[in-house]
Records
---
Amino acid sequence: MGFSGFRVIKEALTGHRGWGELWRNLEPKPEYDIIIVGGGGHGLATAYYLASVFKTSRVAVLEKGWLGSGNIGRNTTIIRSNYLLPGNQPFYEFSMKLWENLEQELNFNAMVSQRTIINLFHSDGQRDAYRRRGNAMHLTGAGGRLLSQEELRGIAPFLNFDNARFPIKGGLIQERAGTARHDGVAWGYARGADRRGVDLIQNCEVTGFRIEAGKVLGVETTRGFIGAKKVGVAVAGSSSRVMAKAGMRLPIESHVLQAFVSEGLKPTIPGVITFGAGHFYVSQSDKGGLVFGGDIDGYNSYAQRGNLPVVEDVIEGGMALMPMLGRARLLRSWGGIMDMSMDGSPIIDRTHIDGLYFNGGWCYGGFKATPASGYAFAHLLATDTPHDTATAYRFDRFARGHVVDEKGVGAQPNLH
Ligand SMILES: Cc1cc2nc3c(=O)[nH]c(=O)nc-3n(C[C@H](O)[C@H](O)[C@H](O)COP(=O)(O)OP(=O)(O)OC[C@H]3O[C@@H](n4cnc5c(N)ncnc54)[C@H](O)[C@@H]3O)c2cc1C
């Protein structure tokens, strides 16, 4: 079933009886060439690129719940490639390029909207840091430029420019950044993978790995043993728990991150805006809700819900930045489990177990990475070599001391 304007009109005129299911609901086969554990954005994108780019057949995605039930359907939908470090910038720019063509490639409306992101600065030192970041972005063609306070007043007049503690002096804008509909991304990749023969198995939790003589032979699941030549794990917030079943202890802690949405308002916020003096970021959904978030809850947890002190902290940041937020009513809040790595950057690598591969440590920045992460993980699974843009994301960087610490806060996962 393809999507087109013609099809939409035809279905509208015939009572919408012709739409089929987006993917098949399958029983697991006894064996696959490659099993992907985790039906989130990264797992589904990996399966899609394995089938479409690397022409791998006999691929399955095993998901313990339903496709898209994890962080892919819980994030604040921001996509951007405004990174500083050489290990990160080319990777996120690769992802941005994939975003730019994603809907055409998948023939699916994921509502990718390049509506800009502006990172505000509040001091001369912060302006200089953003200038440096902007220059790094230009090295990969990511774009970006500094906005004066005057220009910013024209774009976002509702900001509290003259706040005595955190005066807003300007911002770094990336015009190509923006938002995408998060669950639409999962559905688009799932449909694309299914159409290329990938088996998507829901309600199938991986409960263990069968490993013999240092080689993985398959996975134990709630639906029995499934054999595989290679297994790729992409379970985000559950990374430590799942990899512990293979006897591995990861440089990752799991924390909760919350997100919030207000009642629907008239169009107010032009793109994504981030507060430079506190942790707060906000955009406006197409339905009109202000979508915002801030810091993680700061204690280790596998619960998909957060605590009230963080709600207060996030709203405080929002009120300092744009006091008019106090007039809007909060509609909903929710939480997801973040796989926070020791340097704030991800891992896409082989493990010491033959045939077992790992993708995780996305902290709270993994949504924007979904296309590149899937592509790079598929590259690694298919060719056994890292993709050019993901060579920094190895396990051994912690042993070698070559960490990719974008924030420069050291080995403290809750601060990244
Ligand atoms: C509130 C919030 C806001 C965020 N905002 C942003 C943002 O604005 N921009 C951005 O770039 N990133 C953001 N993120 C981060 C981003 O959502 C994640 O980094 C990314 O989605 C993680 O990858 P994933 O999609 O594969 O994860 P998930 O969707 O969590 O996928 C992992 C899947 O693995 C499954 N699983 C777990 N254990 C097993 C098992 N044993 N067997 C089988 N399946 C299993 C889970 O059920 C889940 O479906 C945010 C996250 C949250 C929670």
---
Amino acid sequence: MYYSFPHQWWGKVGMGAAVYASAHCILLPPSLLQPSALYSLAPYGGGYFMGNMADQRAGFKTMRESTKADWDIIVERYQPFARELPDRILGHLKLLGGDDGGFLVDRLHHSLLTATLAHKGGEDEEYVVCALLHDVGDTLGSWNHPDVSAAIVKPFVSEANHWMVEKHGIFQGYFFFDKIGLDPNMREQFRGHPHFERTARFCELYDNPAFDPAMECAPLEFFEPMVRRVFEFPKNSIYRDTCHT
Ligand SMILES: [Fe+2]
Ligand SMILES: [Fe+2]
């Protein structure tokens, strides 16, 4: 590790001259303050010395040649990226707005109605957030949106809630699959599963009735703090202990 404070570190540049650098490189020679010069600094310990912690880059071109120092940089840089996940999720949810797809409400409105109903139904915060995000996969997973939505919530929710989001498409089909030439009883393949009733109930009470434009609907801002709390710490991820502090 060649840094010990958030914005200050000691290190070596080029042929080994010791340089003390701050967040603004104030002790580096002016010739080294040009961006091109900064990028040309010799790699040290695998990583490139830059003037700001936020600018540090690993030096490897293949993962096989990466070093511990490289990964110290990457793990450090990962922290702010991971903390912004709730913003990215909320931004992606907003992409569902404006596309009604022929329904009486657009996909964002449907999501908000589902979450509003779940909240009114007395469900806990994690459940309400799952209700809000159950269709968030629609934009990229247009042919398997429950899988995409479930993958997004998986590290942060219980196995029961994950399963509920993942399987809600098939369970929701109970109400309409017969109208599009599919088997409305497709969900029967899961009969007896520990989360069958939970998922059937989610669709019955919250997903199925959330298409009424006249229904009272909480705004996205109401759910934002819930999303931030639920997505604050991953419960299930192989990277949890390495990348999350
Ligand atoms: Fe859905
Ligand atoms: Fe839905």
